[in-house]
Specification:
Alpha/beta knot; Trp Operon Repressor, Chain A; five-stranded parallel sheet; binds adenine
């Protein structure tokens, strides 16, 4: 998979993409992530990417010209399965959307900024708008990093079998059951006996019951879909 990200803050991705699973996936050649500085596609000396909104109102609006230039350049180089815009009014990211996007070859993500982007960008270039939650971030970079992380961990070969993405919370509309490691007894706080029993069938039943119980208590909405 290849993911291209258009941003005015490429440095913001250094942390999330240089560690852990996303880093390992890149090192193994399972994903290529390319960051593009939008300011390099401006035509003025000040590398301006935003301007005042027609009709006034608070906040600057991302201009169409540099965005059109970079998107058209990238589209000339390969076919994108989706061109995603990160925005609080987009479709709410969930596991089925992440699963679906992870099956694609080429994704392009445009990070939103300021008060918004010229509506014509959305109309003419964007094929999917994604929000990562009902709150407003300062920009789309963190959202793009979250989306990328949620996809990359699903790519075949990225996770070892022992931590397969199939056992993640949400894959079966259940949150994960509790897990424990050594010591068996910490200050009298004991690991449930059943997990030490070695009885695979009973352990699987226990995990399933715990997952259902937790989901009912914490995220009942997941059981309604
Ligand atoms: N940009 C600002 N807030 C956002 C959100 N909640 N999701 C995606 N992009 C955003």
């Amino acid at each position: 998979m290849r993911i291209d990200i258009i941003t005015i803050f490429p440095e913001m991705f250094e942390g999330p993409f240089s560690h852990s699973i996303v880093r390992r996936a890149q090192d193994k050649g399972l994903v290529e992530i390319h960051l593009h500085q939008l300011r390099e596609y401006t035509s003025d000396n000040h590398h301006k990417v935003d301007d005042y909104a027609f009709s006034g109102g608070a906040g600057m609006v991302m201009m169409i010209e540099p965005v059109a230039r970079i998107i058209e350049k990238l589209k000339g180089e390969r076919v994108y399965d989706e061109i995603i815009y990160t925005s609080p009014d987009g479709e709410l990211l969930n596991q089925p959307i992440a699963n679906h996007l992870s099956t694609f070859e080429n994704l392009l993500i445009l990070c939103g900024h300021y008060k918004g982007i010229d509506e014509r960008i959305r109309e003419h270039f964007i094929t999917k708008e994604i929000s990562i939650g009902d709150y407003v971030l300062s920009g789309g970079e963190l959202a793009a990093a979250v989306i990328t992380d949620s996809l990359v961990r699903l790519l075949p070969g990225v996770l070892g079998n022992e931590v397969s993405a199939l056992s993640d919370s949400f894959q079966d509309n259940l949150v994960s059951p509790p897990v424990y490691t050594r010591p068996r007894d910490f200050r009298g706080w004991k690991v449930p006996e059943i997990l030490l029993s070695g009885n695979e069938r009973l352990i699987e039943e226990w995990k399933f019951e715990q997952a259902v119980e937790r989901t009912k208590r914490r995220r009942p909405g997941l059981l309604e879909v």
